[in-house]
Amino acid sequence: MNFPRTLGELRRSPFSEEKLRARRVKDELRENLIAKLGDDAPIFPGIVGYDDTVVPQIVNAILSRHNFILLGLRGQAKSRILRALTSLLDPHAPYIAGCEIHDNPYAPICRRCRDLIAQCGEATAIAYLTPEERYVEK
Question: What pLDDT score does 1 carry?
Answer without folding.
Answer: 63
